[in-house]
Write a structure and sequence with these properties.
Number of strands: 11
Helix content: under 10%
Structural class: mainly beta
Strand content: over 45%
Radius of gyration: 14 Å
Shape: globular
Largest sheet: 7 strands, mixed
Order of helices and strands: EEEEEEEEEEE
Length: about 120
Amino acid sequence: QMRLQESGPGLVMPSQTLSLTCAVSGTSITTRNFYWAWIRQPPGKGLEWIGDITDSGNTVYSPSLDSRTSISRDTSKNEFTLQLTSVTAEDTAVYYCARVDRPPGRWFDVFDYWGQGTQVTVSS
């Protein structure tokens, strides 16, 4: 059974860097035609896509967060990581990792497996 599990600090100070890890089990993060994504949901708002890391390790980020976002992976641990720099209270959200089904020819993300989400609060 595939499982995605987010982990990281629940409280981050303003101006610091938010770091979260998604541990994947039941499949390899290098499997072709599947990407891996970070998504968040601020309180009272909808889901916001943050970025993807592809099966080959390339990354693509939301234009609104691009300058502050970095997604990387550790294939030996089968996990991928989000770093978001210079956080403010507006970065307070539930953060999710998800698998993206991207067969050849599909140019949009379909999220087929999700982690349970982790609350991150930015506050001093």
